[in-house]
Amino acid sequence: MLTTNPFDDDKLREECGIFGIWGAENASSFVALGLHALQHRGQEAAGIVSHDGLNYHAHRAMGHVAGNFDRDDIIRKLSGKVAIGHVRYSTTGETALRNVQPLFAELAEGGFAVAHNGNLSNAMTLRGALNRRGSIFQSTSDTEVIIHLVATSSYSSPLDRLTDALGQVEGAYSLLCLTPEGLVACRDPLGIRPLVMGKLGEATIFASETVALDVIGASYLRDVEPGELVIVNEGGIRSFRPFAKATPRPCIFEHVYFARPDSIVDGTSVYEVRKKIGAELAREALVEADLVVPVPDSGVPAALGYSQASGMPFELGIIRSHYVGRTFIQPSQDVRHLGVKLKHNANAALIQGKRVVLVDDSIVRGTTSVKIVQMMRDAGAREVHMRIASPPTKFSCFYGVDTPERSKLIASQMNVEKIARYINADSLAFISIDGLYRALGDQRNATAPQRCDACFTGEYPTTLTDCDVDGKPKPLSLVATR
Ligand SMILES: O=P(O)(O)OC[C@H]1O[C@H](OP(=O)(O)OP(=O)(O)O)[C@H](O)[C@@H]1O
Ligand SMILES: NC(=O)CC[C@H](N)C(=O)O
Ligand code: SF4
Ligand SMILES: [Mg+2]
């Protein structure tokens, strides 16, 4: 089945993680470790492609990094001093082995492997045009259009062909590519998804987040800049700016939820920012209570910030089981509710008779909030107030986060008072969009926002070529083709 529409199901998932290394013996073993540190970004599938100077080697598997890439026989097969890897949460194309990255093809000028974090907002349009010109696709992933655009480019060098291909795609892409010219890292002109560069001895590393550098003891050099293409080979490291200059719009949600708190994103500590968001939330929406309780794990730093700014004690009123994955990955609404119960439990002895402020990073469908508020009431809480460290999520993401279709986002259907009633909270407040920017040390420029914040504001930084804001595919006749 061709599933190029990001809204084929209603699961909300994260995004993907990429990791690449050039110039280390057993490169793939470093990639396996790096991917392990990026596991929170994608838990559906993982893959590694390596190059030993002569041949390419690939292994892709459904499931986690552990259990697939901690096997000696597999890592030994992935030989060579250069390798790239990927952990996936699908945004376009079904969860199946044929869509697991890195994708690889033997092109006229040699092998080409690509690992992509992001989502192309004109992939369907490009795919249609490529199909009509005779391209035969092997997967239903948006990423594969890059391979066909490279394959059919009229330029001669692999780097020029890649640049030509990327000039035609729209949306979000942080990419790692193995080409006959070397390891290439590239970030889209808006820098929507993150990508950092590091060093370990003589080896050069690229990763979605700095935690993946930490895990192998590598040092952080710098971010790959929005619109920058970096190539690493025997000749050293070269940087290019092949695209028209644009004002960057990195994803603000990385700071709220996606990135690990021990990562540095856009040059700032995610943990520090989350605490500042919590402090800002306390300034904007203070409520008198006995305890500030985080919804673990992702609500913890914001709850700490809320507690420190308000002077109310921070307590672990909800304990999280570490043997249950993120709620999103449950296959149906019923099971998802069960998943939330399995995951969180009230620390009842603490909650009994107390006025509680719950702090979570976001409300998407409302599933978690309904359960957690009820859990507090069942544990004897006198009042339950909910504070959210992001504005209401009203719009879907088209840039590499698998959000449900818009109608399933509770904030697109109900105002704050209605949501409060729905989740049965005594009060509910979300941080304002300006407050979120303040926590990041910025003042939001209303006419030209400094970040992508489209899931809160609906102000998408690129044209949505393939579909409308509700995810409804546009009739092909209305879509421009090249
Ligand atoms: O409104 P919902 O549809 O329930 O989604 C929102 C919840 O999902 C996320 O947590 P999740 O449990 O996925 O992961 P976490 O353990 O990292 O917080 C997020 O932190 C919210 O708690
Ligand atoms: N979440 C992502 O970054 C996914 C990458 C790519 N769009 C895919 O679906 O495979
Ligand atoms: S729409 Fe939201 S999640 Fe997607 S890139 Fe923009 S800010 Fe990030
Ligand atoms: Mg959560």
From TrEMBL:
<feature type="binding site">
    <location>
        <position position="360"/>
    </location>
    <ligand>
        <name>Mg(2+)</name>
    </ligand>
</feature>
<dbReference type="GO" id="GO:0000287">
    <property type="term" value="F:magnesium ion binding"/>
</dbReference>
<keyword id="KW-0808">Transferase</keyword>
<dbReference type="Pfam" id="PF13522">
    <property type="entry name" value="GATase_6"/>
</dbReference>
<feature type="binding site">
    <location>
        <position position="251"/>
    </location>
    <ligand>
        <name>[4Fe-4S] cluster</name>
    </ligand>
</feature>
<dbReference type="InterPro" id="IPR000836">
    <property type="entry name" value="PRTase_dom"/>
</dbReference>
<feature type="active site" description="Nucleophile">
    <location>
        <position position="16"/>
    </location>
</feature>
<feature type="binding site">
    <location>
        <position position="455"/>
    </location>
    <ligand>
        <name>[4Fe-4S] cluster</name>
    </ligand>
</feature>
<dbReference type="InterPro" id="IPR029057">
    <property type="entry name" value="PRTase-like"/>
</dbReference>
<feature type="binding site">
    <location>
        <position position="397"/>
    </location>
    <ligand>
        <name>[4Fe-4S] cluster</name>
    </ligand>
</feature>
<feature type="binding site">
    <location>
        <position position="361"/>
    </location>
    <ligand>
        <name>Mg(2+)</name>
    </ligand>
</feature>
<feature type="binding site">
    <location>
        <position position="452"/>
    </location>
    <ligand>
        <name>[4Fe-4S] cluster</name>
    </ligand>
</feature>
<dbReference type="GO" id="GO:0006189">
    <property type="term" value="P:'de novo' IMP biosynthetic process"/>
</dbReference>
<dbReference type="InterPro" id="IPR005854">
    <property type="entry name" value="PurF"/>
</dbReference>
<keyword id="KW-0460">Magnesium</keyword>
<keyword id="KW-0328">Glycosyltransferase</keyword>
<dbReference type="GO" id="GO:0004044">
    <property type="term" value="F:amidophosphoribosyltransferase activity"/>
</dbReference>
<dbReference type="GO" id="GO:0051539">
    <property type="term" value="F:4 iron, 4 sulfur cluster binding"/>
</dbReference>
<dbReference type="Pfam" id="PF00156">
    <property type="entry name" value="Pribosyltran"/>
</dbReference>
<comment type="pathway">
    <text>Purine metabolism; IMP biosynthesis via de novo pathway; N(1)-(5-phospho-D-ribosyl)glycinamide from 5-phospho-alpha-D-ribose 1-diphosphate: step 1/2.</text>
</comment>
<dbReference type="GO" id="GO:0009113">
    <property type="term" value="P:purine nucleobase biosynthetic process"/>
</dbReference>
<dbReference type="InterPro" id="IPR035584">
    <property type="entry name" value="PurF_N"/>
</dbReference>
<dbReference type="InterPro" id="IPR029055">
    <property type="entry name" value="Ntn_hydrolases_N"/>
</dbReference>
<dbReference type="InterPro" id="IPR017932">
    <property type="entry name" value="GATase_2_dom"/>
</dbReference>
<comment type="similarity">
    <text>In the C-terminal section; belongs to the purine/pyrimidine phosphoribosyltransferase family.</text>
</comment>
<comment type="function">
    <text>Catalyzes the formation of phosphoribosylamine from phosphoribosylpyrophosphate (PRPP) and glutamine.</text>
</comment>
<feature type="domain" description="Glutamine amidotransferase type-2">
    <location>
        <begin position="16"/>
        <end position="235"/>
    </location>
</feature>
<keyword id="KW-0658">Purine biosynthesis</keyword>
<keyword id="KW-0411">Iron-sulfur</keyword>
<keyword id="KW-0408">Iron</keyword>
<keyword id="KW-0315">Glutamine amidotransferase</keyword>
<feature type="binding site">
    <location>
        <position position="298"/>
    </location>
    <ligand>
        <name>Mg(2+)</name>
    </ligand>
</feature>
<keyword id="KW-0479">Metal-binding</keyword>
<protein>
    <recommendedName>
        <fullName>Amidophosphoribosyltransferase</fullName>
        <ecNumber>2.4.2.14</ecNumber>
    </recommendedName>
</protein>
<keyword id="KW-0004">4Fe-4S</keyword>
